[in-house]
Amino acid sequence: MFERLLGAILCLLVAFLPAPGARAETSPLEPDPFWNVPDIGSLPDDENGRLVRRGRDLITATYAHIGPNVPDVQKRYAGNNLACRNCHLDAGAKRFGNPLWGLIDQFPRYDAESGQSIGIAQRLNSCMTRSMNGRPLAETAPEMRAMVAYIEFLSVGVKPGQILTGYGAGDMPELDRPADPVRGASLYGQNCAMCHAPDGSGLRRLSAEPDFGYMVPPLWGPDSFNNGAGMNRLGTVANFVHDNMPNGTSYVMPRLSPEDAWDVAAFVVSQPRPVKPDLAKDYPDLLQKPADTPYGPYADSFTPQQHVYGPFGPIREEIARLKASGTVPKR
Ligand code: HEC
Ligand code: HEC
All domains of the chain, ordered by start, with CATH? Predict the structure, then answer.
């Protein structure tokens, strides 16, 4: 309680301090520390208001609407009982909790993973087929329209080209050694297992129904995200955990040291999870593949092990050399 209060006070302080590096003159590309998440309660009960609220429900309780156990077989889009909000914290409103705000004007944009320009619906479907281990929704599906309407609503008040502080999950310094899953296992026991369970299977909601999702989501195993998900990359998990876990932590006051976050992330990514077929087709241009993508093929000659646990610096240097020399990697 006290910690929460202190966190809230610090958040307020940070919100009213100028962003680091902020200059006196305003440019549209400057981070805007004053942007607030628009208030969904203030939307009227009209067609758009209902669509946005439905979108929020789909994001906070995905399993109850399009999960693998919903009664209507046609609606079983997700392959696991996660919710988008498990990774897009506070229903997509949390800084460095993979927020979904201020995104609309960033799409369509080039996507290195598929090698083409994609719209917001395709980006959402990438999480459907990887993070949710499921199948894509049609762009015209009512659930897709609702989720996109909610994401659009989360962009209200953000000017085109405006960069907000807090996208993604953070960008802490990397280790110059491989992250250590053995050290991570004991950190997991001390800091995570009480919520996510010693076997990583999380904690189901208490309910007579089998499809009521999780109080605490699983981190690995058959009902988790698959191996093609962004959350299966060491850098994503490490930053996410550093800025958000144990649940309730904020980037303002992280609980784990960066080193501990890298090692506990190494333990999480070393665990079994569903396998996505055809991952070898990702990143048609291998020189654009992020160094911590945990599956091949790769343009460089580093071991698969190093692509999972790092260190990633030497890999990026090699990639930069290949790019500079104009090499076109064979697949
Ligand atoms: C297991 C964690 C996880 C779940 C569950 C998940 N996502 Fe994501 N999502 C991510 C991560 C991590 C990223 C950041 C991109 C990356 O690193 O690949 C992301 C990126 C996105 C983006 C693009 C954000 C940007 O900044 O460009 C959208 C939109 C999105 N997700 C929507 C959804 C929706 C809608 C759902 C539910 C149907 C969902 N996600 C479920 C982890 C998840
Ligand atoms: C106090 C309970 C608690 C503790 C301790 C905790 N978590 Fe979580 N974690 C949660 C909850 C709850 C969520 C989902 C948040 C939401 O839906 O708002 C979550 C979400 C996550 C996610 C993203 C969702 C997913 O399914 O992958 C990851 C990764 C994660 N936690 C890792 C960790 C790690 C690693 C630790 C230990 C350093 C940890 N957590 C400690 C409760 C906890």
Answer: 41-153 (1.10.760.10), 181-269 (1.10.760.10), 286-324 (no CATH)
